Amino acid sequence: MCDILTIEHIDKWRGKAQVLRGVNLNVAAGERVALLGHNGAGKTTLMKAILGLTRTGGGRISIDGAAPGSAQARRKIAYLPESVAFHKSLTGREQLVLFARLAGVGRNDCAALLERVGLAGAADRRIGTYSKGMRQRLGLAQVLLGRPKLALLDEPTSGLDPISRHDLYAIIDELAGQGTAVLIASHSLTEVEARTDRIAIMRRGEVVADDTLARLTETARLPIRIRVEAARESADLIATKLDGTRMNGARVDLVCPPSQKMEQLRRIAALGDGVLDVDVIAPRLEELYRHYSEGEAQ
Ligand SMILES: Nc1ncnc2c1ncn2[C@@H]1O[C@H](COP(=O)(O)OP(=O)(O)OP(=O)(O)O)[C@@H](O)[C@H]1O
């Protein structure tokens, strides 16, 4: 797949503070990339740089060949800000038709889009009466207008209930399915774990990790946990033999580097009938995120 978004070695200074440090990031057509990082890591600044709303130095940013802020780039990008604001006195339909006119696309799609984002029933109500989730849905309908090459979504699910989140990711999947490159800034790790193709983590203005979840896990070499369910009478003995920690009931927990996993499993298998069950628990995204975002990698 070809890259729609290319960011090469971008810097940004705010006064004496460097808020973007040599950022490199690519997003291909149809790819969903999560942008993670603590508060103040630089995610929103990077999105603004892509939109051409803030000046940057260093290398270059290209949106399907266009420069940030150019008329060409603006036509290719759809942006959903974290707090999406609309005219309160317009109805959802009126607002979307207005956006369609501004985007130079026909208004015919609007009814179908409102239906798609679950707002058909509320389309003729004033936006002032919408809940936060309904406003996010309207924002997403706007993103879907005109089939953007690149969608930038800043915390798209903040404040949404689980069903709305699920619906929103289903729509994001469709967007990617039609070839849009999608960049999602998020704090919701479990969501992006399941719903994105690649994860980029920012720390103090720098992209410190950028890969698939599987490869990030492999590279971080975080310890894995092995959970042994022992027969009640054997639990203490097994804990001693494996040098594990005796937990509630008859459970014994071990922690080991990935390279020792098979050796540990062989030792457990050799313990015979005293072992009833074994689970191997890979590091969760929270642990990986902490590893990269707090600099434990160094
Ligand atoms: N308008 C501004 N003026 C001065 N400094 C700013 C401005 N906007 C952002 N910053 C600073 O730039 C850095 C990056 O902020 P940014 O908003 O990009 O982070 P973020 O990763 O989006 O954080 P969050 O998760 O809280 O939204 C921070 O140190 C922030 O204080």
UniProtKB/TrEMBL annotation:
Record-linked InterPro entries: AAA+_ATPase, ABC_transporter-like_ATP-bd, ABC_transporter-like_CS, ABC_Transporter_VariousFunc, P-loop_NTPase
Official protein name in the record: Cu-processing system ATP-binding protein
The keyword Nucleotide-binding appears for this protein: yes
GO-annotated molecular function: ATP binding; ATP hydrolysis activity
Pfam families, A to Z: ABC_tran (PF00005)
Organism: Pontibaca methylaminivorans
Keywords: ATP-binding, Nucleotide-binding, Transport
Source organism, top-level taxon: Bacteria
Annotated ABC transporter domain residues: 5-229
